[in-house]
Model the fold of this input.
Amino acid sequence: MADLSAHPFAQIALIAFCFAWFALRLPVEILTAALSILAITLTQMVLNQQKERSADAHRRDVALHAKLDELVHASRRARNDLMGAEELDEEEIARLKQAMRPDREAVSQDCSAAPRERATGSG
Done:
């Protein structure tokens, strides 16, 4: 219902309805009360929809982190202290990344040396 009421045609229809109400000189108090109830109802529907989307996104994030933790656990070269890093504060994550920097540089050098070794036939 929230998607339907957010459609541009629904908004145009509501404006046209209000103009027609005024053109017919119907009681404004009834229109005001109806629009107030409609606004409250639509606001609650939008909030409920956002809550559902947020819960779904959280579920997907938890599943993704579980998959990543499994990959870290399965990898022989991976550091297990990175498992569950999403639960840490930003400062702790920054310290972990800083501590990993020498490891990343070593892996980068290993990866760049490997093609040269294969090309020369050594290794």
The mean pLDDT is 79. The two ends are 65 Å apart (CA to CA). The chain is about 80% helix and 0% strand.
